[in-house]
Structure formats: structure tokens, C-alpha cells
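Support request from a user on the community tier.

User writes: "When I paste my C-alpha cells into the form, the page sometimes reloads and wipes my input. The last time it worked, I copied everything first. Here is what I submitted, just in case something in the input itself triggers the reload:"
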């Protein structure tokens, strides 16, 4: 956005707004899905994960490949591994069990 001529104030304001909307959406989703079965929650989570992967494949990975070339795949795998380990640590379980 900075390369497109947007001001730092605009960029930070936009990302702050996105952060607030995402936090409110997460809170709303958490509250709304508490009464649903684990299968519904798992299905919703799977759709959300698919949306994130689609966004990565469409937008982020091509830009990363332009910058990191051969390391883009390795960095992506390392990021997914870190997310997996952190999610398991957050649930107080060993990531390997």
C-alpha cells in the first residue's frame, strides 16, 4: 500500500480496523458456536482453514516467491509447522500425541 502511494496513517488505520473487525468476529463466532456440536465446529473450522489457504495461494505465496524465490516453500512449511506446534501447546497437549 505504501508503494501505491498510501500514507502510513492510512495503512495503519486500515490494518487497525481489520484487526478490530477480526477480533469482534472471533468473539461473536466463539459465543455463537458454543452451543453447537463438535462436528459443526470442526466443519466451520475446516471451511475457515480452506479460506485462509485459498487467500495464501492467491495472494501471499506469489509475492513471497518473488522475494524469497527457492525459500518460499520452505518458509511456508516452517510456518505451518510452527502454527501446529503452538496450537498443540496452547491446548496443553504434546504436539506429538
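"...and here is what came back when it finally went through:"
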Amino acid at each position: 500500500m505504501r508503494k501505491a502511494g498510501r500514507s502510513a496513517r492510512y495503512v495503519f488505520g486500515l490494518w487497525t480496523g481489520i484487526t478490530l473487525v477480526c477480533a469482534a468476529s472471533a468473539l461473536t463466532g466463539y459465543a455463537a458456536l458454543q452451543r453447537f456440536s463438535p462436528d459443526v465446529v470442526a466443519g466451520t473450522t475446516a471451511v475457515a482453514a480452506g479460506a485462509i489457504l485459498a487467500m495464501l495461494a492467491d495472494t501471499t505465496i506469489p509475492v513471497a516467491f518473488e522475494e524469497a524465490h527457492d525459500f518460499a516453500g520452505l518458509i511456508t512449511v516452517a510456518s505451518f509447522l510452527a502454527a501446529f506446534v503452538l496450537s498443540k501447546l496452547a491446548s496443553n497437549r504434546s504436539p506429538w500425541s
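Agent notes: The reload is a front-end session timeout and is unrelated to the input. Residues 38-68 form the longest helix (31 residues). The mean pLDDT is 86. Escalated to web team.
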